[in-house]
């Protein structure tokens, strides 16, 4: 590995599919650049990448966040139910 490259992963999952791509990106790359290099948009054209939130290891980040060695870029689907409301409904039905 060149000293100016980082090993990272880009991942996305839904009920129907999973995407995990290991990449080497130049040092100083951002989350947005890593997503573009992963070709996720080409492989899953049905995704609206602009509508998805992103993070690194389950911590929400912005697209301009600079990556570090071994980061895992995650794209998060919108929630279909509010977790707090779901817990309240379950508790009320008991």
From TrEMBL:
HAMAP family: UPF0125_RnfH
InterPro entries in UniProt: Mopterin_synth/thiamin_S_b, RnfH, RnfH_sf
UniProt name for this protein: UPF0125 protein GTP27_07555
Pfam entry (one): Ub-RnfH
UniProt superkingdom: Bacteria
Coiled coil region boundaries: none
Family to which this protein belongs: Belongs to the UPF0125 (RnfH) family.
Organism encoding this protein: Duganella qianjiadongensis
